Amino acid sequence: MALKQKQASEVATKIINQQELFILDVRNEDAYGDWKIEGASVTSMNVPYFDLIDGVEEILPKLPKDKEILVVCAKEGSSIFVGEELVEAGLENVSYLSGGMKAWSEYLEPVKVGDLPGGALYQFVRLGKGCLSYLIESNGEAAVVDTNRMIENYTSFAENKGLAIKATFDTHLHADHISGGKTLADQVNGTYYLPEEDAGEVTFDYTALKEGSTVTIGEVTIEPIYSPGHTIGSTSLMINDAYLLTGDILFVESIGRPDLAGKAEDWVQDLRTTLYNRYKEMAGELVVLPAHFSKMAELDEKGLVSAKLQDLYQKNDGLNVEKEEDFRKMVTENLPPQPNAYQEIRETNMGKMTPDEETKREMEIGPNRCAVN
Amino acid sequence: MNSQKTLDTKGLACPMPIVKTKKAMKDMESGEVLEVQATDKGAQSDLAAWAKSGGHELMKSEETDGVFYFWIKKA
User: Fold this and answer.
1) CATH topology of domain A109-363
2) Which of B14, B21, B26, B39 to mutate to test the interface with A (most CBs of A within 10 A)?
3) What's the ipTM?
4) Quick check: A142 pLDDT over 90?
5) Percentage above 90 pLDDT, chain B
6) Does B41 touch chain A if contact means CB atoms closer than 8 Å?
7) What residues of chain B, 56 to 75, have a C-beta less than 8 Å from chain A?
8) Annotated domain spans of chain A
């Protein structure tokens, strides 16, 4: 049988449905150790392609005979090379990931969160990078929150549903991925909202996202709530008093890190106040929708990442550190490495750098690492 | 840097730069240096990892005008 091509969307469906998947990742060991395709139903094995140039005989005994084998590399060239060797060696069910880890990093899976008056709220799950963005629709209008770089995902979704995108929001100046907010807003003649405190060095026009200035999309209200700590401008969005989009301040299993703009010590107190006062006073029934997840286990059976605010005050360790000193240590010491190219990503999001598409893709490789653990 | 042999893989995509490097190294003597030129960005980390796994020494690497240069000493 010939080598088959698998799209990132097909792999995403398998992972969300928890179907068994065996992955032979042929990138080098560092790349694999840094970042790979994960999921409860995924088994993966790493053998760099350069160890397989002279043949695959050595690894054949370690590969499953009765299951599909998905070969994965950075772009796809090496996975096709190794995949063809496996087919030649007599394996029946071998495929490769079209576009490799780059395509995986860019794939967005839209998942419906719930209904809203005149429409609904959708979460766009970027499985490969752990980024979550949102589309709010009501009465034919739409807004996109924490837009990713690949804006055609949102424009084609809106087109299929006959929606006009009126506004895009960034809850903060992102450091882990390149925002598509400004580009998308310009393309649809909409308004781009960004918190003013994060926009000091921004070189293009934007509309200040400010507490007290509510935005209406169809029948739905979007209420900005100033919630600093991950950045000084970080602003959460309350959607119709039902959903709380927390950006990179509060995640399902962790909390935001305050150091990506180089000001960890300065922003610790802001982060503490947001999480231990501001959010605590809000209704426990609110559904928290963050801008990131870090583990596939955070996805529910639909692929959705969310939690009730009151449940997070029970279960999320970051919300249960009694002493301020312990909290300060937790968010300033022993932090994970910073996201790949985070300084360049921040500068790109400010408009100070305009890399080409290929460079943007390279900059975004790897996990998001916006949480403290 | 002095090298006994130069390999041009410019314009080739992964896995070809390494496939060709491996082949070129076969015909060389221990201690000789191979210069590899590549434009594939992935070659950077992959050549380093490959050299390490084969015990070869990546003596130097640099980038000029979008071309990566590597000097690898055969084990």
Assistant:
1) Metallo-beta-lactamase; Chain A (3.60.15)
2) B14
3) 0.90
4) yes
5) 87
6) yes
7) none
8) 4-103, 109-363
